[in-house]
Design a protein that fits this description.
- Its EC number is 2.5.1.18.
- By secondary structure, this protein is α+β, with helices and mostly antiparallel strands.
- It is built from 10 helices and 4 strands, in the order E-H-E-H-E-E-H-H-H-H-H-H-H-H.
- The chain has a 4-stranded mixed beta sheet, covered by helices on one side.
- Helix 1 packs across helix 10.
- The protein is globular, with a radius of gyration of 17 Å.
Length: about 230
């Protein structure tokens, strides 16, 4: 098996990559590396290329360390496997998907990542949540979700009427916000179209498999219970 993924399913970057691999029905080997353990030794190429150790993928002789680039690589190099429309079937579709991927990385990820930490994990880790940071990032994320809500009134998914990488990339942070924080949950479910979209993308078998892997082999933060 040529594809190896290094990391923990609990990591948002790792879970993004795993979901893409499941969507594309590409076989892979997951090598669980807990970088939270200071005495854990990782392969030299990992230490040199990805100091954080959040996610690394090796496909033959190629090594990738950015989860979104990994997803692009998977879709481009295994076009005829699994979900064949996940990265678009033409130039215009691909361009639209890329626009939403960039929006997720630049506009959605920063406030949602901050909220995941402060709302979902700070308290259980014994760290006092920063209310000022929470409110600031809630406002930022709310503005992003308002844009999404309007777009999702026009189409089933962000880049059109097919599930694509544009939607998939939102799954990891959204999952922690919706399932582990009432305030995060409300940000999504107070917006009708966003709530419908989230229910649909989080019900995909590819994502269910990742959530199962998270619960079956928890990472250092996974011991904290999810809210209903």
């Amino acid at each position: 098996m040529s594809i190896k993924v290094f990391g923990l399913p609990a990591s948002t970057d790792v879970s993004r990559v795993l979901t893409c691999l499941f969507e594309k029905e590409v076989e892979f080997q997951l090598i669980r590396i807990d970088t939270y353990k200071k005495d854990h030794k990782v392969p030299e190429f990992l230490r040199l290329q990805d100091p954080s150790g959040q996610v690394t993928l090796k496909d033959g002789k190629l090594t990738f360390v950015d989860s979104r680039e990994i997803c692009r690589h998977i879709c481009e190099n295994y076009p005829n496997q699994g979900n064949k429309t996940i990265f678009g079937t033409g130039g215009l579709e691909r361009a639209s998907i890329e626009q939403w991927l960039q929006s997720e990385a630049r506009n959605f990820d920063p406030p949602s990542s901050a909220l995941v930490f402060h709302l979902a994990f700070a308290g259980p880790l014994g760290i006092a949540p920063d209310e000022a940071q929470i409110q600031q990032n809630e406002k930022k994320l709310a503005r992003v979700l308002d844009v999404y809500n309007r777009k999702l009134d026009e189409s089933r998914y962000l880049a059109g009427d097919e599930f694509t990488l544009a939607d998939l990339s939102h799954l990891p942070n959204s999952h922690y916000l919706v399932s582990r924080s009432e305030r995060g949950h409300d940000l999504f479910y107070k917006r009708k179209n966003v709530a419908r979209w989230w229910d649909e993308i989080s019900s995909r078998e590819s994502w269910k498999q990742v959530v199962h892997m998270q619960s079956e082999h928890p990472g250092p933060l996974e011991k904290f219970a999810m809210i209903d």
